[in-house]
Amino acid sequence: MWSGKYLRNPLTQSLLIKMVCESGTQQEAHEWYGCRTEILGESVRPAFIQSYLDTETQAFLNRSAEKSGCLVTQLYHSFVSTLFSPFMSRTSINGYLGRGSMFVFSPEQFRQLMNISQDWKSKRLLDLGAGDGEVTKVMSPHFEEIYTTEVSATMKWQLEKKQYRVLGIDEWQDTGFQYDLISCLNLLDRCDQPVKLLKDIRRSLEPSKGRLVLAAVLPFHPYVEIGGKWEQPSEFLVVQGKTWEEQVTSMANGVFKEAGFAVEAFTRLPYLCEGDMYSDYYHLDDAVFVLRPEE
Question: Helix axis angle, 90-97 relative to 71-84, nearest 10°?
Fold first, then answer.
């Protein structure tokens, strides 16, 4: 098989990486987006939206493959990670290095899930646990005011560089105004008090038109990063079932209903992360929901 290490021309290397990445991704794409709708509960089945590998997702994968192929950069990242890991979290190290960007959905996938047009606008967006703001950037064109939260100091720095307003983790719930959209993307399983978080979100949403976009990695395995160590959260969410479809149904009929939300739409997407010297990218299985508050 051809290998990029024997190609000296950078353009040829880039083209080869793109071809290999696209070929491998196409083979995996069916599993990334597939849903056995017959296993879904009857109450949630009509809300499922089928997603597909699109050009924006493929472009992210191509960029990740190119970055992971730069040996000097990857060696530097590995050295810094080893040096800082005893006293910095992995998230903070990534923020310092400007690496490890996440990809949850493309602009097209976001619009399809929200059932909005390209020129749809609303007032306030709050992105909880926004990381480096790359996913915030997908949603932000539709809103006049952009608010974020983040625990990591280096990630806050990344958000401020993008000119997003960063609120404190105990501040966003008591600003005196409500939000038209709150995004909680892959945070529920990394939060110490997920039940309280869902209650605070519901209270902070505009009651008539407010929506929550929530992504959760399934199977659901909650743990919290504290001082570089992984600990069990103080609050537990009961998510039943073994398959992706069974756990989606359990979250919709149990976790979300108890928190005062109804599922308006949901889809299956790969939760992608930039790779390193060992892999071009990493991915987990996400369920991404649009939830509306209900009485």
Answer: 140
